Give the backbone structure.
Amino acid sequence: MTQDRFEPALISLVSEWLGDGLTTVLACGMVGARQGWQEAPYRAVPCAPVAAGDTVKVETQDPRLDVRIIAGLSQAAPADVMRGEEVQIAGFLSQQPDFEGVLLLPGTHSKHVELVDGHVQRFATHMTGEHFNLICAHSILKHSVAEGDHDPVAFADGVQIGRAGNALKRLFSIRAEGLVGQSDPVAARSKLSGMLIGAELADLDPKRPTMVIGSGALCDLYLAALLQIGVDAAARDGGDLVRAGLTKLYLTEQA
Amino acid sequence: MTQDRFEPALISLVSEWLGDGLTTVLACGMVGARQGWQEAPYRAVPCAPVAAGDTVKVETQDPRLDVRIIAGLSQAAPADVMRGEEVQIAGFLSQQPDFEGVLLLPGTHSKHVELVDGHVQRFATHMTGEHFNLICAHSILKHSVAEGDHDPVAFADGVQIGRAGNALKRLFSIRAEGLVGQSDPVAARSKLSGMLIGAELADLDPKRPTMVIGSGALCDLYLAALLQIGVDAAARDGGDLVRAGLTKLYLTEQA
């Protein structure tokens, strides 16, 4: 999307809500990336997930719009970045301000976020979702996997392999199982998913409070894998938390 | 390639060597796969890498050809297969029949082969080469890596990450390093290569004799990584060993 297409796209979504006066629009996520509408900075952790004033104002053609893009978060070492999840984290903390532990935000680029005293202490991005799609679509394993009903037994088998640190070295077995014996491509896909999710979760400490932010089938997979490895986790809806985080920031900026 | 195109392709390569009588052609590798010229069976390990008589005769139109495809090797658990490498292993054993230890055959699908008493005891396929190409070509990291001169420092940094079991969880840092600071895409590519090779080699036992079968730049990368992790390994040319293995099998079958 070229930069001049963001404003018409936004107006087509929110025009019903625009009055005669100025309407503040708070935006977060990849809209603030270099290839987004306007680049927003990163704030370096450790820090609160969002901060009043740390937004970038976007110049708009329409005088009714006051668009601000929220800064992302960055980490120097290991190098890491996030855009958008920081608002979900702020939304979560607005509801559970005393939570200390790990937030897990599954997705194409899954985030593990350590919260201490209302601040993001450190975080790590795992390319699990992208990696899974890449292997299913482009690797030789594409001949060995097929979409279909989730297979919980094959998934659990995969989680076990992944948490033991064997995801990479056992990838090819997904193909070989179909060559040396019988293999169900639908089960193989669940197993591959379990292997990559198990690898992602291998380092989690079962003694630390852990919360999954997300919803739907992917969130359920993570909850099942966490249960299997002994991490007692609950889930919060990611959409709800984005709205809670945006609202919190808006009210703070108005105050 | 469709099946009827194998014979003309072969004749165009060997016609100068064909006489009036019958010429034996021993073939190995993916020519014996299900999608190859004719499917050859797998022999289950533990076993000698090749065995006289364990070839499949191919029906040819040209009466001067006696084409035989050599069986591959399979392993039940963890499921694994190889086609072609077994001939290199046989070639290696024809030169060093008393070798006991690990043969490492780098490539798209890298093989680790444990040799005991002239037999393949077990083996493991690592999709390292395919995985590297996949990530460079199709993942979000493609924007962060570029071909160029090998960077040995970045490579060694990657090997260190990979051998510590952190290859998967640090993939995204390749991209993030370019977003939060300065990053050289050519060095980033060497680092990614080191991460995946380091992960592949992490479980090798420095106390076991180890030999790399291959040649060229990829072989040099493996030798450098092995040196870094304390495994003393020499290399043998893979092409030479294929010819040695085919010759050995041919002479055995004639005897």
